[in-house]
């Protein structure tokens, strides 16, 4: 049975020792007894006790010194630089590696100078044209001066966050909503970057801005559908402009070609008309002496040549009606068309087969060929 089980166990180690009840030993009494024993041994030993006390004190001091020296070793990683403070004041900056600093005298603050850090900011902001937009931007930066990063401002991360928020609100407040939401986002991002550089430069915080990202920009949810329609209309506008430019690039060379062709045709027509006019002038200059020598013959010749040119381009129908009731109808153009269709030379027998009744001068009907009638009419017209 265990000593602390109920039922009157008498095996409690703190009871019934020496015939009396006793509790757990008092720590103060333990230490008093221990130091008392050391004091008695020192008093009894005389000089030997003093030497043992000195050796113990020396060992204790050596141990403390060893612990102090060992505790001063520290390591700076490759991506870090150490800022050493001596009694709370800046002393130096150390490079990566195993280093030693006296404990309780120097303190070392490691600062990461290679990692790319990010800081974001977002919020609803009022634009220049009094519209509310929700903007989210993210900044990436890196520490380049550990001392300035540690001591230039009290809280560098918070200072950077406030500076970024201030830069975004300033730029958005001086921009139109369409520029922030649509085609002016790249310009807005660049302006925020420049504004942030101007804000943090007087503080000399020891940081370098690596990049600035425009994560999101959107209108309030209440008017989001209307803004989506506006953005779609702007995209359609740009698409129509590109299509019109493509059509212009396609049609312009064709139009220029037509213009050049018309100019060349007009120039050729001008030259042709000019040359024809000059030829007519030369012809009349040649006819003038002949007309002066024989005006009647020359006039008749000019008349015949003119009629030949005019009648050569028109359809001709010859009618012979001289007395009586019979009439000869001779469509010469039809006959010529039939000859061309047959592609054969017209024989005299073919023409003689087309005989029509013709009234002669004596009033009697006689059969004569169209050729004879044509010949007689021609001679009569010539006379």
What does this 3D model show about the protein?
It is a single chain. With 383 residues, the chain is an alpha+beta fold. The protein has 4 domains: 35 residues, no CATH class; 103 residues, Tetrahydropterin Synthase, Chain A, CATH 3.30.479.30; 74 residues, no CATH class; 68 residues, no CATH class. The strands form 5 sheets. The chain has a 3-stranded antiparallel β-sheet with strand order 3-2-5. The longest helix has 70 residues. The chain is rod-shaped and about 180 Å long. The termini are far apart. The C terminus is likely disordered.
Compose a concise summary of this entry:
The chain crosses the membrane at residues 55-76. With 383 residues, the protein is of the alpha+beta class.
Strand order of the largest sheet: 3-2-5
Quick check: average pLDDT? 75
Cα Rg? 63 Å
How far is it from the N-terminal to the C-terminal residue, by CA?
Answer: 175 Å
- The strand count comes to 12
Biggest sheet overview = 3 strands, antiparallel
> What count of helical segments does DSSP give?
11
Question: Strand-and-helix sequence, N→C?
Answer: HHEEEEEEEHHHHEHHEEHHEEH
| Content of β-strand | 15-25%
Structural class computed from helices and strand pairing: alpha+beta
Q: What do we call the CATH topology of the largest domain?
A: Tetrahydropterin Synthase, Chain A
Secondary-structure arrangement, i.e. CATH architecture of the largest domain: 2-Layer Sandwich
Pick out the low-confidence regions: 346-383
Helix-residue proportion: 40-55%
Indicate how many domains the architecture comprises: 4
Please state the overall shape, judged from the principal axes of the Cα atoms.
rod-shaped
CATH class categorisation of the largest domain: Alpha Beta
Look at the structure and name the CATH superfamily of the largest domain. Band 7 domain
Main location: membrane
Protein name: Protein HflK
Subcellular location: Membrane
Function: HflC and HflK could encode or regulate a protease.
